Amino acid sequence: MTNLMSLIKHLGAVAVLAALTACAAPSKPYDYTAFKEAKPASLLVLPPVNDTPDVNATYGVLSNLSMPLGEAGYYVLPVTLVDETLRTNGITTPSDAHNIDTAKLRQIFGADAALYVGVKQYGSVYKVLSSETVVEMQAKLIDLRTGTLLWEGKATASSAEQNNNNQGGLIGLLVKAVVDQIAANLSDRSFQIASLAGNRLVTAPNGLLPGPRARPVVKN
C-alpha cells in the first residue's frame, strides 16, 4: 500500500510538472505567408491515412472535417463524391489517394487545395486508474495549383476533458475506468471525440485561416 501511495504521489508530481512546462512554452505563431498568397477557396479533403488499429478511424475522422471547414468559410467538395470518384478510378486506399500527383487531383476535382490527414490515435485506452477515448490527427494543406505547402498542424481531443471527476477514492477510480471502457465500447464515443478534434484542428490557434466565405465577426 505504501508503494502504491508513493507511485500515485510521483505521478501527480509528474502531471503538475508537465502542466507547468506546457504553460511556460507557448506555441510559436504559424507563418501564414504562403497561405495568404495562395488564398484557397475550395478544398478537397482526401481520405485520412489510418495509423491506428481501429478500422473506423478513416471515415470517423473524414466525416467530421467538412462541417468545421465549411463554417471556416471554405467550399468543401462532398466527401461521398470524392470517395466514389477515387474508387471509380481504382484508388481504394487512403495511402494511394495521398500519392496522386497534385496536378492530377487539380485536373479531376478542380479544387484549389487538398487537405492531407493522418490519424495517429483513435479509440479507447485503458489505464490503471482511468479509461479515455483519444483522437489525434495531423494534417497539411497543399496548393493543388502549385504543389506548395500552405499549412500544417495537428490536434488531439480526449474524453478525459469532458469528465474530470476524481471523487470516490482509489476503488472509485478503478470502477469508473472499467465503466468508461465498457461505455466507450458500446457507444460510438470515438466519433464524438473526432468531432471535437476536427473542430480543434481547424479553429484552434495556428489552425486554418478563415476562408473567403467566412462570416464577418460582428463587434458590439
What does this structure look like?
This protein is an alpha/beta fold and 220 residues long. It has a domain at 29-124 and 132-157 and 189-203: 3-Layer(aba) Sandwich (Rossmann fold). Helix content is 44%, strand content 20%. It contains 9 helices and 6 strands, in the order ααββααβαααβββαα. It has helices at residues 2-24, 33-38, 57-62, 66-71, 79-88, 94-98, 102-109, 169-186, 189-203, and strands at residues 42-45, 49-50, 75-76, 113-126, 131-143, 149-158. Strands 1, 2, 3, 4, 5 and 6 form a 6-stranded mixed sheet that branches. The termini are far apart. Residues 1-25 and 165-187 have low confidence and may be disordered.
Please give a quick description of this structure.
The chain is of the alpha/beta class. The chain contains nine helices and six strands.
Query: Share of helix among residues?
Result: 40-55%
**How would you state the average pLDDT, rounded?**
81
Taking Cα atoms only, what radius of gyration do you get, to the nearest Å? Answer: 20 Å
Tally of contiguous helical segments: 9
Q: Report the uncertain regions.
A: 1-25, 165-187
Could you give me the name of the CATH homologous superfamily of the domain at 29-124 and 132-157 and 189-203? ABC-type transport auxiliary lipoprotein component
CATH topology of the domain at 29-124 and 132-157 and 189-203: Rossmann fold
Q: What is the N-to-C order of secondary-structure elements (H for helix, E for strand)?
A: HHEEHHEHHHEEEHH
Secondary structure tally: strands: 6
* CATH architectural name of the domain at 29-124 and 132-157 and 189-203: 3-Layer(aba) Sandwich
**CATH class categorisation of the domain at 29-124 and 132-157 and 189-203:** Alpha Beta
Class from secondary-structure proportions = alpha/beta
Question: Biggest sheet: strands, sense, closure?
Answer: 6 strands, mixed
Shape label: globular
Distance between the termini: 58 Å
